[in-house]
From TrEMBL:
Quaternary data: Homodimer.
Cross-referenced InterPro entries: Dabb, Dimeric_a/b-barrel, HS1/DABB1-like
Name listed for the protein in its UniProt record: Stress-response A/B barrel domain-containing protein
Domain Stress-response A/B barrel per the UniProt entry, residue ranges: 5-99
One Pfam short name: Dabb
Regions crossing the membrane: none
Length: 105
């Protein structure tokens, strides 16, 4: 994975947030790639682990960028800021982490 930066978000939605609201938020999240040119790819899914280590987090989102500068441009982009303002009030917990994949040993 040479030349990429991964932006990972783990989300736990508040009790009472409906399935339809979550689906709309996911659609809007995915749509950011159509408005922010620095996004190379976007994937998401729900927890399917059998280890019971999710600590209540149910959704995972991964956005890929070519460079750290592209990631920074994404975070500051008005479309991302606007989306965050919609997403954060629906969340009980969130974790965000960015990393550059290390070369295989």
């Amino acid at each position: 994975m040479k030349g990429v930066v991964k932006h990972i978000v783990l989300a736990k939605f508040k009790e009472g947030v409906t399935k339809a609201e979550i689906e709309k938020l996911i659609k809007d999240y995915a749509d950011l790639r159509n408005h922010i040119k620095q996004v190379k790819s976007f994937e998401w899914g729900t927890d399917v682990s059998i280890e019971n280590l999710n600590q209540g987090f149910t959704h995972v989102f991964e956005t890929t960028f070519a460079t750290l500068e592209d990631r920074s441009a994404y975070v500051a982009h008005p479309a991302h800021v606007k989306f965050g303002a919609q997403l954060f009030p629906t969340l009980e917990k969130i974790i965000g982490i960015d990393f550059v994949p290390a070369p295989e040993p």
